[in-house]
């Protein structure tokens, strides 16, 4: 089991940054779909999660091939690229996801409660409005570059691994 949390102070600076981060993680997951398929067949599991303060990478499975899968994820992260068509597809999916959160009373109530309790939190309404105003490909590219330049990493490795 390998878990790394790539933390960046950049994410919580604005609602736009949170939306750009969600877009980035979704595109990264989309890009990894085909190359990581063989790992999935070999019973290796991975998950990319857009956490509140950074990207969480979780990988688990048999230890002899796990580093290869982790390296694949890191390679795609470091050489991040996307096409305009993928960008459009992911932003449309995010619009639906955000909207679905807003129309469910229990998730909206949770969001409002956390907004009251946590200092500096951006509401789902802020994120949805930012996304509806439109994101640019250039803004995403600039955000990803800035994100990769301002990272703090926490990691956990469990199992049959050597140091």
Summarize, please.
The mean pLDDT is 92. This protein is an alpha+beta fold and 163 residues long. A hairpin with a 3-residue loop joins strand 2 and strand 3 (54-60).
Helix and strand topology:
Elements: E1 2-7, H1 15-32, H2 37-41, E2 45-50, E3 54-60, H3 66-78, H4 84-103, H5 105-117, H6 124-133, H7 137-149, E4 152-157
Antiparallel strand pairs: 1-3, 1-4, 2-3
Helix pairs in contact: 1-4, 1-6, 1-7, 4-6
List keywords for this structure.
163 residues; alpha+beta; Cytochrome Bc1 Complex, Chain A, domain 1
Tell me what you see in this structure:
The protein has helices at residues 15-32, 37-41, 66-78, 84-103, 105-117, 124-133, 137-149, and strands spanning 2-7, 45-50, 54-60, 152-157. The chain is of the alpha+beta class. It has one domain: Cytochrome Bc1 Complex, Chain A, domain 1. Strands 2-3-1-4 form a 4-stranded antiparallel beta sheet, with helices on one face. A hairpin with a 3-residue loop joins β2 (45-50) and β3 (54-60). Keywords: Metal-binding. Pfam families: Peptidase_M16_M. Residues 1-129 form the Peptidase M16 middle/third domain.
Provide the CATH architecture: 2-Layer Sandwich
The gyration radius over C-alpha positions equals: 17 Å
How would you state the average pLDDT, rounded?
Answer: 92
What is the N-to-C succession of helices and strands?
Answer: EHHEEHHHHHE
Query: Structural class of the secondary structure composition?
Result: alpha+beta
- Number of structural units classed as domains: 1
Shape: globular
Strand content: 15-25%
Percent in helix = 55-70%
Q: By CATH's scheme, which homologous superfamily applies?
A: Metalloenzyme, LuxS/M16 peptidase-like
Q: Tally the helices: what do you get? A: 7
Low-confidence stretches are none
N→C terminal distance = 14 Å
Q: Report strand order across the widest sheet.
A: 2-3-1-4
The CATH class turns out to be: Alpha Beta
CATH topology: Cytochrome Bc1 Complex, Chain A, domain 1
Pfam family, one: Peptidase_M16_M
Domain Peptidase M16 middle/third: 1-129
Protein name: NRDC protein
GO molecular function, one term: metal ion binding
């Amino acid at each position: 089991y390998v878990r790394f949390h790539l933390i960046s102070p950049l994410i919580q600076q604005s609602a736009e940054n949170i939306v750009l981060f969600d877009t980035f993680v979704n595109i990264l997951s989309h890009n990894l779909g085909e190359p990581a398929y063989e790992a999935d067949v070999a019973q290796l599991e991975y998950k990319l999660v857009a956490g509140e303060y950074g990207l969480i990478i979780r990988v688990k499975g048999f230890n002899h091939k796990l580093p290869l899968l982790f390296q694949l994820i890191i390679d795609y992260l470091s050489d991040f690229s996307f096409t305009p068509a993928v960008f459009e597809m992911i932003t449309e999916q995010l619009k639906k996801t955000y909207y679905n959160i807003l129309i469910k009373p229990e998730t909206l109530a949770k969001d409002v409660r956390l907004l009251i309790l946590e200092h500096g939190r951006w509401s789902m309404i802020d994120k949805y409005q930012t996304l509806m105003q439109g994101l640019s490909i250039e803004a995403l590219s600039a955000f990803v570059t800035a994100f990769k330049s301002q990272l703090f990493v926490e990691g956990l490795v469990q199992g049959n691994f050597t140091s």
